[in-house]
Amino acid sequence: MASSHIEIPIIIHPNNEVVNPAKPSQAIEENNINYSQRAQVLRAAVLGANDGLVTVTSLMMGVSAVRQDIKSVLLAGFAGLIAGACSMGIGEFVSVYTQLDIELAQMKRRKEENKITSIVDNEEKKEDLPNPFQAAMASMVAFSIGGVVPLVGAIFIKDYKVRMCVVVALASLALVVFGVIGAILGKTSVNKSCLRVVIGGWMAMAITFAFTKLIGFAGI
Hints:
Strand order of the largest sheet: 1-2
Number of strands: 2
Distance between the termini: 104 Å
Largest sheet: 2 strands, antiparallel
Number of helices: 7
């Protein structure tokens, strides 16, 4: 009497994951996600936030070098936040749109050369194409998030010296956070990443403060 049993084939993927074809595996769905593209977007967002933080903080430090009243500092910081966010958004839109045009032209040339007619291949390639609107919005939002940090730190403090110390302290803390996130996304050393980001931010603040103070002394 022959034994009755059902054989279920097992598929072993290159990453040593065992998959049962009878049941759709979550691992297969996750493998279809473009993690490289997602990491690039996140890294660009972190860089945009870091740029907004350093730009607005440096601008506020520069104005503080010649004007100690809180109104001038906040107006300068707010103007820098709006101008920087718009500049980042427009610049990113133009840059990514140019990249999109180049990739579409390259796809067209490859299609003509290789006679690619597969709808599936075309759809997959379209999903991998950069999105100018998404990139522009991400840059604007990221820059704004970074730029808000020093403004929040200064808005309720009227004393000049205390205000500057709080702004620098908050900016430094935020730089450390951005350095950690950047290191995790880039899979690099956290200590080195934080050190580079913090020292770079401090240099930008110090140089802006020094040159603005020098112009103030010159009476320009």
